[in-house]
């Protein structure tokens, strides 16, 4: 009985080992590694494609060591293939002769990076010729067109934008400066009263505060200043005779201008104590001066509006 149990145990252990070996052998059979070279005969400078692909269960992945070039060739690019599992290398040879691409150890590992198998690819041999060999040394191969390279920094576009922004900012500055100038001009105009208003106010003051002689002295000065401020003719610096002889410079109706000159002459006589006015004359001259300021300012305002 004991011998029978021992025999059954031995048979069971052997079955497990056999099953495990079969499973492992079956797993190895499902793993395939392929290496291919697009040509074994090339010319110096040609770009050669070297691919390593594989077929294995989804729970496994493949990896290959980093390849390094030498003085005879360079590995220009390493790409991971998208359409199938594997890698592609772009090789360029810079010397002539026969070269060997050695076996590449491909590691098959689980998701936890445990390596299950290492499979080596077959070596390849490639013959590299000079660019003159195929033409017998008579003709060179056609020059390959240059690869367009975009500049690292768009200098031209940046300069154009800077010029545009500078001009735009300059125009904004000019516009704001013009607005500020107009505002200051309006502010100053609001501070300074119009010549006719200032003249009327001063006329009322001298009529209340001055005696007969002072009234005419101030009246002469007031009317000269009013005319000068209104039409910008320097009547304050002119004598009465000079004003009389240059009547054509003053845009006024003839009768109103003559009456103003007569009033100035009368004020000159009083100023130099050659004549003393009567009280009624002062009242009339006061009223006439007010009317003169009103009529002349209306006339000049219409004249300026007509010219504009």
What report would you give on this structure?
Strand 8 and strand 9 form a beta hairpin. The protein has seven helices and ten strands. The radius of gyration is 57 Å and the shape is rod-shaped. The model has no long low-confidence stretch (mean pLDDT 79). With 308 residues, it is an alpha+beta fold. Among the domains are: 29-129, Sandwich (Immunoglobulin-like); 195-307, no CATH class. The strands form three sheets. Strands 1-3-6-5 form a four-stranded antiparallel sheet, with no helix packed on it. Strands 2-10-7 form a three-stranded mixed sheet, with no helix packed on it. Helix 3 (195-209) packs antiparallel against helix 4 (212-231), helix 3 (195-209) packs antiparallel against helix 7 and helix 4 packs parallel to helix 7. The protein has helices at 2-29, 155-191, 195-209, 212-231, 240-245, 254-271, 279-307, and strands at 32-37, 41-43, 47-55, 60-63, 73-80, 86-93, 97-101, 105-110, 115-120, 124-129. The protein starts with a helix and ends with a helix.
Set out the fold topology.
Elements (H helix, E strand, L loop, with lengths): L1 H28 L2 E6 L3 E3 L3 E9 L4 E4 L9 E8 L5 E8 L3 E5 L3 E6 L4 E6 L3 E6 L25 H37 L3 H15 L2 H20 L8 H6 L8 H18 L7 H29 L1
Parallel strand pairs: 2-10
Antiparallel strand pairs: 1-3, 3-6, 4-8, 5-6, 7-10, 8-9
Helix pairs in contact: 3-4, 3-7, 4-6, 4-7
């Amino acid at each position: 009985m004991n011998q029978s149990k021992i025999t059954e145990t031995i048979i069971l252990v052997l079955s497990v080992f056999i099953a495990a070996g079969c499973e492992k052998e079956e797993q190895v059979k499902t793993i395939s590694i392929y290496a291919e070279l697009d040509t074994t005969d090339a010319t110096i400078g040609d770009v050669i494609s070297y691919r390593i692909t594989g077929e294995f269960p989804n729970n496994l992945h493949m990896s290959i060591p980093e390849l390094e070039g030498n003085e005879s060739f360079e590995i220009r690019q390493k790409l991971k293939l998208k359409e199938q599992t594997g890698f592609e290398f772009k090789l360029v040879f810079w010397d002539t002769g026969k070269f060997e691409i050695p076996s590449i150890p491909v590691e098959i590992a689980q998701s936890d990076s445990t390596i299950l198998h290492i499979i080596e690819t077959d070596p390849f041999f490639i013959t590299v010729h000079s660019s003159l060999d195929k033409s017998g040394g008579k003709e060179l191969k056609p020059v390959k067109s240059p690869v367009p390279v975009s500049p690292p920094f768009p200098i031209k576009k940046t300069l154009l934008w800077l010029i545009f922004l500078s001009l735009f900012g300059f125009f904004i500055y000019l516009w704001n400066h013009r607005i500020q100038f107009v505002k200051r001009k309006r502010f100053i105009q609001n501070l300074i009263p119009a010549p006719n208003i200032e003249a009327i106010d001063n006329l009322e003051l001298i009529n209340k505060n001055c005696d007969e002689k002072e009234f005419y002295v101030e009246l002469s000065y007031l009317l000269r200043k009013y005319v000068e401020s209104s039409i910008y003719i320097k009547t304050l610096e002119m004598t009465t005779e000079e004003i009389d002889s240059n009547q054509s410079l003053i845009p006024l109706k003839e009768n109103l201008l003559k009456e103003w000159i007569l009033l100035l002459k009368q004020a000159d006589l009083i100023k130099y104590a050659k004549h003393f006015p009567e009280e009624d004359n002062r009242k009339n001259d006061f009223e006439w001066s007010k009317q003169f300021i009103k009529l002349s300012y209306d006339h000049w305002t219409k004249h300026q509006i007509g010219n504009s």
